[in-house]
Amino acid sequence: QVQLVESGGGLVQAGGSLRLSCAASGRTFSSYAMGWFRQAPGKEREFVAAIRWDAGRIVYVDSVKGRFTISRDNAKNTGYLQMNSLKPEDTAVYYCATGPGLRLVGLPTKADFNSWGQGTQVTVSS
User: How many Å apart are CA 42 and CA 10, to the nearest integer?
Assistant: First the structure.
């Protein structure tokens, strides 16, 4: 199993940017798909973005397309989520996760990932 630790969260004004990092250890990170999810208070954890092990497939939820960019550096065992043009509705705890692969059709779900980090808080003020 992969151990994951997120960092880079914080408080930012609307329109600002943050870059989240997900440091992996344990089993080979480069073999796994990686995803970012978020959970706002009182809401279900929702999918944000995912990237295949070789970055050959990348998917985003519609609400972040054009604003967020997911990437990975397998040599550093680290994944990233660059978040630009942040909105108050992006406020949530953000989690990274890894799994065996990405489905070919449709957006990934929580069930597609079997290792999770502890989360990092992102707060966007209006």
Answer: 20
